[in-house]
C-alpha cells in the first residue's frame, strides 16, 4: 500500500518543512509515502469561501484514482489515540489497498462534493491547527503508527 497526502498550497515556514522532511525521510523505511501539493488558487480575492472550496475540491478530486480510499483530515472526524490510529492503519494495510489517500484541505475546509466522495474523516485533535502545521503533525503520526506496528521503541504509553 502507498500512502498519499494531498494538500493545498506549499508549506511556507522553513521550520515546518524541516520537520516534515525529517518524518518523510524516516517513513520511507516503512511504507511508500508521497505528498502531492496542489498549488494555492490564484485571484481568491474575487471568490467567496464557497467558490474557493469548490475549486479546491475539483483539484483534490483530480488526484483520486479508481480504487483509492480517500480519508479527509477534518475537525469533525474520528479522534484516535496513537495506538488506535496504528490499528486503523493496520486494517487498511491488511485490506490490500493500493493507495490510501489522506487529504488536508485549504483554510476553509472541503467542498460538499469532496465530503460526499470521501471514505472517512480523521481528526488529529479537538483543537484547531493551521492547515500547514497539520502536515507536520500528521507526518509524525503516520511515522509513529508504523513504529507501533513494527514494535519499535519510538512510542511510549
Automatic annotation (TrEMBL):
It is found in: Cytoplasm. S-adenosyl-L-methionine binds at residues 73, 105, 124-129. Keywords: Cytoplasm, Methyltransferase, rRNA processing, S-adenosyl-L-methionine, Transferase. GO terms for molecular function: rRNA (pseudouridine-N3-)-methyltransferase activity. Its EC number is 2.1.1.177. InterPro entries: Alpha/beta_knot_MTases (IPR029028), RlmH-like (IPR003742), tRNA_m1G_MTases_N (IPR029026). Gene3D superfamilies: 3.40.1280.10. SUPFAM superfamilies: alpha/beta knot (SSF75217). It is an enzyme of class 2 (transferase). HAMAP family: 23SrRNA_methyltr_H (MF_00658). Specifically methylates the pseudouridine at position 1915 (m3Psi1915) in 23S rRNA. PANTHER family: METHYLTRANSFERASE (PTHR33603), RIBOSOMAL RNA LARGE SUBUNIT METHYLTRANSFERASE H (PTHR33603:SF1). Belongs to the RNA methyltransferase RlmH family. This is Ribosomal RNA large subunit methyltransferase H. The lineage of its organism: Bacteria, Pseudomonadati, Bacteroidota, Bacteroidia, Marinilabiliales.
Amino acid at each position: 500500500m502507498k500512502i498519499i497526502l494531498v494538500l493545498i498550497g506549499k508549506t511556507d515556514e522553513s521550520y515546518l518543512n524541516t520537520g516534515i522532511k525529517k518524518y518523510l525521510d524516516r517513513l520511507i523505511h516503512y511504507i511508500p509515502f508521497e505528498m502531492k501539493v496542489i498549488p494555492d488558487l490564484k485571484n481568491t480575492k474575487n471568490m467567496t469561501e464557497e467558490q474557493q472550496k469548490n475549486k479546491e475540491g475539483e483539484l483534490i478530486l483530480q488526484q483520486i484514482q479508481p480504487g483509492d480510499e480517500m480519508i479527509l483530515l477534518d475537525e469533525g472526524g474520528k479522534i484516535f489515540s496513537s495506538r488506535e490510529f496504528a490499528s486503523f492503519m493496520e486494517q487498511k494495510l491488511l485490506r490490500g489497498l493500493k493507495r490510501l489517500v489522506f487529504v488536508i484541505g485549504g483554510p476553509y475546509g472541503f467542498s460538499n462534493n469532496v465530503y460526499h466522495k470521501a471514505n472517512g474523516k480523521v481528526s488529529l485533535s479537538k483543537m484547531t491547527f493551521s492547515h500547514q502545521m497539520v502536515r507536520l503533525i500528521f507526518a509524525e503520526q503516520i511515522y509513529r503508527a508504523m513504529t507501533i506496528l513494527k514494535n519499535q521503541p519510538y512510542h511510549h504509553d
